[in-house]
Specification:
The protein is α+β, with helices and mostly antiparallel strands. The chain has ten helices and nine strands. It is elongated, with a radius of gyration of 25 Å.
Length: 359
């Protein structure tokens, strides 16, 4: 098994909210982001107010409809009270979000700052309109990278989250991805690999139209769609054999992969928590993937080698943590119940109150 590359102990340590808040304030002042942070908070509050008021109006219309159905003449004080009660859980949830959200963000930044210091990395909270050669960075509008960690050993690399918007007619469709960019030591042909995973969709971006689809073999074609320029097809086939292909199948199949301008980009289809120790285990695997692709082993003493990253057979816990890292957020029955139950109770109460009032 490969030695540990990153020290993740600080990511597991508890964070004092007061210390994290103070560190966040100092960072905002140092980076001159005070106005932007205040504007962002104000905009978030306005959005919540619009959401709650809009939901209240819809709830009021539903209550009026029920009252009409049971013989009432129209809206009255009961309508307003029931509509307000129906949206109270939503309002409480939004208030909690505005309180807990900044605290969680401050703790996240504090952990990543400490992690960067412990591992000799550089940390940046974000950058607008990032310029990167990978195709996904040329998509859409409102482009921003956040939680960017960079390092130079065992090879130059960058990990972060990236957000952008695409538009369908007049509808804004926010896109969120997590990415890794690793410098390659050997020149490799440019290529794009789109994951075929249905469990982990990787986003809406597509390879450049000039690229042609390339078939590698049945196993690899079932996991990736490979695109490249016609003149480099044989060179791409050579890369996608042996240890490089095995490494891609082992740790890269949950993401899209692009090799361009001497860099290996791995793009996952949603934001990943960079403060999750499992992310940095995956990062170690990606460094080994780069070694497997470009051949030479990392310099001695950095904890990587040119071995193929395992898929979890040698370390079942590592494989399970990687699966958990990429698992989509669980939004299921509790959220549905929390949204529907107040609505149903409010409408039932409107019906009962109307019938009692009419005798």
């Amino acid at each position: 098994m490969r030695p540990q590359v990153f020290d993740v102990s600080v990511l597991r340590a508890p964070v004092d909210p007061a210390v994290a808040k103070h560190a966040s304030h100092e960072r905002v002042v140092k980076e001159g982001r005070g106005v932007g942070v205040a504007a962002g908070s104000a905009w978030a509050i306005i959005q919540s107010l619009v959401l709650v008021v809009g939901a209240g109006l819809l709830a009021g219309l539903c209550v009026v409809a029920v009252q009409y159905m049971f013989g009432a003449d129209g809206a009255d004080g009961t309508t307003v009270i029931l509509a307000a009660l129906m949206v109270t859980p939503l309002a409480v949830a939004r208030v909690r979000s505005h309180i807990s959200g900044p605290r969680e963000q401050q703790a996240e930044e504090y952990r990543l700052t400490s992690f960067a210091a412990a591992n000799g990395l550089s940390y940046s909270t974000g950058q607008l309109d990032p310029v990167r050669p990978a195709t996904v960075f040329g998509q859409g509008t409102s482009r921003v990278v956040t939680d960017v960690l960079t390092g130079t050993s065992p090879r130059a690399f960058e990990f972060g989250n990236y957000s952008y918007d695409i538009w369908s007619a007049k509808t804004r469709l926010p896109q969120r991805v997590s990415y890794a960019a690793l410098e390659l030591r050997s020149p490799l042909p440019s290529m794009t690999l789109k994951s075929r995973s249905r469990e982990h969709p990787t986003g809406t971006w597509e390879p450049a139209p000039a690229l042609k689809r390339l078939s590698v073999d049945a196993e690899f074609d079932a996991r990736f769609d490979v695109y490249c320029a016609s003149e480099v097809t044989e060179a791409v086939r050579e890369v996608l054999t042996g240890p490089g292909r095995d490494a891609l199948l082992a740790v890269g199949a949950y993401a899209d992969v692009e090799i361009v301008d001497g860099r290996l980009y791995v793009v996952a289809g949603r934001h990943l928590r960079l403060s999750d120790p499992g992310f940095w285990e995956w990062a170690e695997d990606l460094l080994a993937l780069a070694d497997a692709l470009d051949g030479p082993a990392a310099p001695a003493g950095h904890g990587t080698d040119a071995s193929v990253p395992d898929a979890g057979t040698a370390d079942a816990g590592r494989g399970a943590r990687r699966t958990e890292l990429f698992a989509p957020p669980k939004v299921g029955r509790p959220v549905a119940i929390g949204c529907l139950l107040p609505l149903l109770i409010g409408l039932a109460a409107a019906a009962v109150i109307t019938m009692i009032g009419l005798g």
